[in-house]
């Protein structure tokens, strides 16, 4: 949909990542601001109901904006962090590292969502950037899917790969995000780390998210293509245009 927002349909279960639907403009965070440069490809009404929202974190407007909050408030289930549960309430359920939640599938099976770590910046910065989570999706006869959330650490990726890999699909929040809060440090994976993460995860296919539509992203689609080419993994990269659908 643009930014960190994507709709996944797995065995009849519909999941939406980090809902962001607000128009372009300035979005303050304390004394700072983030600048959104393009709107979402689809409206909440066009997306329709989902079985669950997978919310990496709630405290940054590029991951959950005003319209996203309204959508989340109506969702039957939101899986996120303990901090998000405290702030949002409602149907938000905290999913700790390694904790699992099962969703029923129309075919009678289940889809398992497991919480995994995410590190939204360099080591030792969680007190500045806040709590973030990622997700692993799995089930009998289903592909194994990793959703990174706003993670900048290859050590985190490596640990997740050792616990759950290899992966059929990885949705990596990329873009090499930077803000004055942490200077030239990355808050999400830059392109070269995204390509390295694909190798660590053993991911057959990689769908980058959250690398466009905001001014604080330092790297975009061109650098992703080049980084995956240099790593010899260009055949794994699936760059989606906003609103585009693919079967994986």
TrEMBL record:
Signal peptide per UniProt: none
Span of domain Metallo-beta-lactamase: 14-211
Keyword line: Hydrolase
Domain of life of the source: Bacteria
InterPro entries linked: Metallo-B-lactamas, RibonucZ/Hydroxyglut_hydro, UPF0173_UPF0282_UlaG_hydrolase
Protein name as annotated: MBL fold metallo-hydrolase
UniProt source species: Streptomyces nigrescens
């Amino acid at each position: 949909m643009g930014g960190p927002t994507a709709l996944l349909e797995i065995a009849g279960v519909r999941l939406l990542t980090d809902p962001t639907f607000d128009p372009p403009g300035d979005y303050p965070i304390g004394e700072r601001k983030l600048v959104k440069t393009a709107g979402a490809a689809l409206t909440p009404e066009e997306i329709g109901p989902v079985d669950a929202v997978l919310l990496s974190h709630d405290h940054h407007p590029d991951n959950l904006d005003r319209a996203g909050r309204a959508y989340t408030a109506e969702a039957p289930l939101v899986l996120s962090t303990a901090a998000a549960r405290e702030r949002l309430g409602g149907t938000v359920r905290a999913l700790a590292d390694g904790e699992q939640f099962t969703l029923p599938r129309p075919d009678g099976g289940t889809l398992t969502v497991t919480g995994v770590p995410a590190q939204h910046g360099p080591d030792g910065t969680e007190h500045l950037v806040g709590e973030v989570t990622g997700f692993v999706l799995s089930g009998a006869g289903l592909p194994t899917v990793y959703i990174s959330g706003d993670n900048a650490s290859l050590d985190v990726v490596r640990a997740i790969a050792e616990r759950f890999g290899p992966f059929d699909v990885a949705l990596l929040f990329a873009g090499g995000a930077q803000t004055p809060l942490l200077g030239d440090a990355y808050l999400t994976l830059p392109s070269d780390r995204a390509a390295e993460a694909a190798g660590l995860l053993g991911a057959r296919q990689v769908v980058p998210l959250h690398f466009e539509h905001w001014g604080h992203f330092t790297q975009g689609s061109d650098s992703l293509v080049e980084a995956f080419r240099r790593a010899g993994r260009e055949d794994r990269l699936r760059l989606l245009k906003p609103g585009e659908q693919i079967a994986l």
